[in-house]
Structure formats: C-alpha cells, structure tokens
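Onboarding guide, step 5: your first structure request.
Type a short instruction followed by the sequence, for example:

Predict the 3D structure of this protein.
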Amino acid sequence: MRHTKHSDKRMNQRGIAGDMVALALDFGEIEGDKTILSPKACRSIIEELKRQQKQFEHALKKGGITVVSDGDAVITTYRSNSFSVSKSQKSRG
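The system replies with structure tokens like these:
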C-alpha cells in the first residue's frame, strides 16, 4: 500500500514503523475506512505464535516431519531424518 507524505510524517512523529503498519493491515479488523490492530488481538496472535513455536520445536526434535498424501488423504508420515533411500529401494524390489 502506498504511503502519503502525511502518513509518513505522522508515523515518524508517533514512532510507528512501516512494519507495524503492515502488521495492522495484515492482522487488524476492518471498521469502515480504518484497520484496527487492538491490544487484545495482539495478545491473541502472540499466544498463537507461541503455540506454533512449541510445535515447530517439537517437529525439529523429531528431525523434521514428512507427510505423504494423495489429494486430501494422508497416506503416511515419518521423521524426515529417518528416511533411507537404500532401504526404500530394497523394499520395492
């Protein structure tokens, strides 16, 4: 989104960085011509990010996760660092 000279001036005066404006536009609620990123929404998003961080850390401890699917059906899953090409080829033939 393009910034006017007025918005640039106000952002500088108020200590609001461009990345904060982007967050508000991405995650805020639209009310008429305004987009509002409330403190409540910020707290909720932070809690969700913390939950996701824990999930990523768990997946990392597993060595990554691979999911094999066909369309919308999950066929199998395994730890990414446990896959062996040689074992896979032996089982096929």
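Each response can be followed by summary notes, for example: The CA atoms of residues 30 and 36 lie 6 Å apart.
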